[in-house]
Structure formats: C-alpha cells, structure tokens
Design brief:
179 residues; 9 helices
C-alpha cells in the first residue's frame, strides 16, 4: 500500500516554513482521512507519479475545505463579530475557526506541492488570492499579507524543484562568474 505520509515526507513537507508550528493535528487529520483515497488513486492510476496523485488529492481537499468555509461563512462571520464585540478585537484573534485553520493548512500544502512540481506561478498566485479573499471575508486581516504567506509555501516547494533540476551549460557558466 502506498503511504500518504511517506509521499508527503518525500515531497519535502518539512520545508514548508508556514507549517513548521501549530499544524500537527491538521496534518495528522489530513493523513488519517485521506490515506485510503490516496492508496486507491495510486492503484487505479499507476501511470501517475505519487506526487501527481498527491496534487490531485490536495486539489480535492482544497475544494472541499473552501466549500466548508464558504458554506459556513455567515455563521462564522457572525461568531467572529460576537468575539470581537465581547472580548475586543485583539483578544478575538485568539479564537480560531477550525474550518479556516484547515483551509489555511491545505492551501499551504497544496501550493507547496504545486511549486515542488514546478507548476505555473500565476495559477498558484490566483489560487492564493482567491483563498485569501475567502478567508478575509470572514475575519479581519490584509489580503496581500495572507496571499504572500501562501505564495511563500509555493516558493518553498519551487526552491526544492529548482535544486533538483539539472543546470544548463549557460547557467553553470554564469554561476562561475558569480563566485
């Protein structure tokens, strides 16, 4: 059986700076709830690499997490307003919406894998922007700060992708002159 946790590890999940702390339970939950689907997809699509299958699984997970946030948007927004009115704006940030936290986790992981596979920056940026707008329609914050945080995970993955690619002769020559 193909292990989801092993594929995540081989993809370099430890390199995602944004997930270095505070997301252990989300990771465990993700693996526990998606291991069977991942193994099934790997068996049914043996022509795909495990990383490609992981990308598909994360795409599905992102759609599901976005839907979860979107469908609870009014309730979450009302709950956030109650916290802000009751304990103040600063203290209300201590309460975390579990749907939003999971969406943030999945988005970082999904964009990391996109970068890890050398996918297009502009598509990742569009997804980061759309997800940031969704999150910040419920809680306060800056869309650009949220978006750039997501894109940092894309670049964490892209740096691993770039390091694994052979350098052209031109690049090697330029690097010699940089020293």
């Amino acid at each position: 059986m193909t292990k989801l946790s092993k594929t995540l590890e081989q993809s370099g999940i430890d390199n995602i700076q944004a997930l270095a702390e505070d997301y252990d339970s989300e990771l465990e939950n993700f693996i526990e709830h998606n291991q069977a689907l991942f193994a099934h997809a790997c068996t049914n699509k043996p022509q795909n690499s495990q990383r490609q299958t992981l990308l598909g699984l994360l795409t599905k997970a992102h759609i599901d997490a976005s839907y979860g946030v979107e469908s609870n948007k009014d309730t979450s927004h009302a709950m956030q307003k109650v916290f802000e009115n009751t304990v103040g704006n600063e203290n209300s940030k201590k309460f975390q919406n579990s749907h939003i936290k999971y969406l943030v986790f999945i988005t970082h992981l999904w964009l990391f894998v996109q970068g890890r596979m050398g996918m297009d920056f502009s598509l990742a940026n569009d997804h980061a922007t759309a997800t940031s707008k969704l999150i910040l329609s419920i809680q306060s914050g800056d869309i650009e700060v949220q978006r750039t945080g997501f894109m940092a995970s894309f670049y964490d993955g892209f740096s691993l992708y770039s390091a694994s690619q052979p350098q052209s002769r031109w690049s090697k020559l330029l690097n010699m002159f940089k020293r």
